[in-house]
Amino acid sequence: MKFLVVDDSSTMRRIVSNALRDLGYTDIVDAADGVEGLAQLEAARPDFLVTDWNMPNKNGLELTQAVRSHPEFSELPILMITTRGMKEDVVAAMQARVNNYVVKPFTAQVLGEKIDAILKTA
Amino acid sequence: MPTASNPAPILDRLVELRTVFEAGQRAVSFAEELSSLILDVLPLLSEIDGSLRESAGQMPEATLQIQSVTEATEVATTEILDLVDAVRARLSPPAPPDGPPGAADRLRSLLRDRLDDAALLADAEALLDEADADEAARAEAEAARLDAARRDLDRILVSLQVQDITAQQLASVNHLIESVRYRLNKLVRWVSAEGGVAPDDDGPPVDAGTFDADARYVRPDSLQADVDRAAAEALASGDGASAAAGPTSQDDIDALFGA
Fold it and tell me: Locate the Response regulatory domain: which residues (chain A) (predicted)?
């Protein structure tokens, strides 16, 4: 299963990728913002998208909306990882149709649980 | 019409004139006070103008310093991540032995072939079994020690997420400084404008930025339960009805959010 990790922080891209490898997912590509993420979506054709919210150019919500309106990737599993933990943020993310939501700082265990939950319902 | 026998209209006019004169005197006095005040305030305005210019001028430097702090922490975090990766690679569990039998097994086989004394053979095999058990216990203890070290490294990886969180907090401070600078510059132009009319050119307003001003570092996963609850409530209330084609039963919610 190929993962696309989109985050403007190189630290977070690396931490998320490390956690995914620990969970057994070794096929990982990444991007530094929403625009680059969309380009990688077309180029790498991932099976799963993990995205940050606050990013330049195109934020995680806008990226999610773009993916959901893409004819080929509208059902792509999307996990949002963000510092935003307010209820209205969660509701906004769900309305944009992310499949699940993880708040930073997170552990690899929670990341694994959320990915499993998404894949179980996919 | 005033007449010699009726001077009242003249007197009325005189009273009106006196009132106007008194009002004029008050106006002149007010104008004098206002003029004096303006004379006092002008140097003050000039000083304010200078202070505003100085403050506004120092802000870009402050912004750059904060930006350099963010970059420095990112570089340092990357170096720590490199080290963590290197240590994790060294802590990988050793591959199971794949090759000829170990020394103990070879010795066991040799004794069975060459030793005719059954009692001695039994004692030797018992000793070898004991040595095997000791070795297995040592290997288990070593594996547990490596596991503990790996868990510590995992905790370091979680802690390093603080870099992203503080970067957002610093970006928020920078945004605040830039907003204040924009308003100060506007004020400077207004204070120093000819005839009190500020030019229209305020420059581009400060960009909204891409940070979470409320980002905070808390115990890992401590906010996750609140977020899961908020998501479940939103689904139940229909706020997030468009999410994932709308699973609305509790089972679906639990399944979707891994409750």
Answer: 2-119
Q: Which amino acid is at B34?
A: L
B 40-79 residues with CB < 8 A to A: 74, 77-78
A2-113 to CATH, choices 2.40.30.110, 1.10.3720.10, 3.90.79.10, 3.40.50.2300: 3.40.50.2300
- Asked if A12's CB is within 8 angstroms of B164's CB, the reply is yes
A77 vs A97: CA distance, rounded Å: 10
Give B210-243 pLDDT, tens digit per residue: 888 888 888 877 788 888 888 888 778 776 644 4
Which residues, listed in sequence order, are joined to residue B6 by a DSSP beta bridge?
A: B3
Residue A122 forms contact with B (CB below 8 Å)? no
Note the pLDDT tens digit of each residue in B123-149.
Answer: 998 998 998 899 889 989 998 999 999
Give me the sign of the Cα torsion angle B4, B5, B10, B14. Answer: positive
